[in-house]
Design goal:
The protein is mainly alpha-helical and 410 residues long. It has 16 helices and four strands. A four-stranded mixed beta sheet has the order 1-2-4-3. The longest helix is centred in the N-terminal third of the chain and has 32 residues, at 47-78. The termini are far apart.
Length: 410
């Protein structure tokens, strides 16, 4: 057995085992605290809410364990099991040339994997989310969303994939620099276009009509030195009872968006505090830092892909007998996550650090207690566990644990 084959199998096994270990810790920690509301929350979180959050967390974790097994099997089946090779061989029978051949193979493999994973999405939405009172999406709307995403993927990712494969085929050894430039430009363009042209395909965005709240938000934006294309309320309640807020877009095409479910639960001061936190990410350049990191990461990844694509053993050791640019791309997409998974704690730590910094920014421009009260309501309404396992939390969580975060604010 080739050393790369062995290393890849060990990486997949190690990732799967780690996921199961962390999941077991999380289930044990949450279950053992199911009937005990942490002291700082006892005035605001009822025992029934604590139990609901525990059951919701455990149920999702158990489904995640099954999904982990399926994903590991799929990864091995499409690589060492010959899945990519089979799709490649089938499309080659049609006699197509590049970049059409490569695009067809890549799209087919990704579509097959998406269809295999679709039952998990259906079960999560119509069983788990419905059981805990969160799901509001109808089967018709679910299918409509799925169809829209598929069409958008073909219209947006299809041409980009054609360009990428063409560049890989025709620009020589430095193709990865050209691909990186195109990929980066496409990502920035998509980020700019998303709030105005893509998001409205799925949700309705209405300008904020509450005059008093609008004045409060306008004053906050002025204090924070932030300009946007407007403040909008999104009909998130069409699909879910979960609440959230975010800002999106770049340049002058930035939008501040509140879910209507969030607006129903929070008061004016709390909404202001939540928005101040989100603005903190912008003013502290967290968004730019993540964007730069993503660009650097994609550049290094493409450079590594370019090196791997020149190694004949890269294909044979991973189940592909016929080397090509598109199979190199697919192999890299499927193999890399097994190795980069173990960098997850670093990413999570960096994100939690940004959350603390955004909280500090928020309390300088809004009410500290209002932010804490808003977060407690969000934990309650979203059935977020207040008692996660510390190791699981440190490995995965992009936000600080509730107890730590609220204690720090209060």
């Amino acid at each position: 057995m080739h050393w790369l084959t062995t290393l890849f199998i060990l990486a997949v096994v190690a990732e799967t085992a780690t996921r199961f270990y962390l999941s077991t810790r999380q289930i044990t920690a949450v279950t053992s605290n199911r009937d005990r509301v942490p002291e700082p929350f006892r005035a605001e979180i009822a025992p029934a809410d604590q139990q609901k959050a525990a059951d919701y967390t455990v149920t999702r974790a158990r489904l995640g364990r099954l999904q982990t097994i399926v994903e590991a099997v799929l990864t091995l089946a499409f690589t060492l099991g010959g899945g990519i090779a089979w799709f490649d061989s089938w499309w080659r029978q049609l006699g197509w040339s590049q970049p059409w051949l490569g695009t067809a193979v890549v799209v087919s493999v990704l579509a097959a994997m998406m269809l295999i994973g679709l039952p998990f999405s259906v079960y999560r939405t119509f069983k788990i989310e419905a059981r805990f009172g969160f799901n509001r999406i109808t089967p018709a709307l679910f299918i409509s969303d799925l169809a829209k995403r598929a069409v958008l993927a073909l219209l947006l990712a299809g041409p980009l994939l054609l360009i990428v494969i063409t560049l890989m085929e025709r620009t020589g050894g430095a193709w990865w620099l050209w691909v990186w430039a195109v990929w980066t430009a496409a990502g920035l363009g998509l980020t700019w276009a998303y709030p105005r042209f893509i998001a409205p395909l799925f949700n309705r965005f209405s300008p904020l009509t509450d005059a008093a709240l609008n004045a409060r938000i306008t004053a906050l934006l002025t204090r924070c030195g932030f300009s946007s294309n407007g403040v909008f309320v999104m009909d998130g309640s069409r699909r879910s009872a979960h609440g959230n807020a975010y800002f999106t877009g770049v340049g002058r095409n930035k939008r501040i968006v509140f879910f209507d479910t969030l607006m129903e639960r929070l008061g004016g001061a709390e909404i202001e505090a939540v928005l101040a936190h989100e603005l903190g990410h912008f003013r502290l350049r967290h968004v730019k830092q993540r964007l730069v990191l993503s660009m650097v990461g994609s550049l290094l990844g493409l450079a590594l892909l370019a090196w791997c694509a020149r190694q004949p053993d890269f294909y044979a050791a991973l189940g592909v007998p016929t080397p090509s640019t598109h199979t190199a791309l697919l192999l890299f997409m499927l193999v890399t996550p097994a190795f980069t998974y173990f960098a997850t704690p670093i990413s999570a730590w960096w994100s939690r650090r940004h959350e603390f910094q955004a909280d500090d920014f928020a309390v300088q421009h809004a009410d500290r207690r209002a932010l804490a009260d808003a977060l407690v309501k969000l934990y309650k309404d979203n059935a977020s566990t207040l008692t996660p396992d510390p190791v699981h939390s440190a490995f995965y969580d992009s936000h600080p644990p509730a107890l730590v975060r609220i204690a720090r604010l209060r």
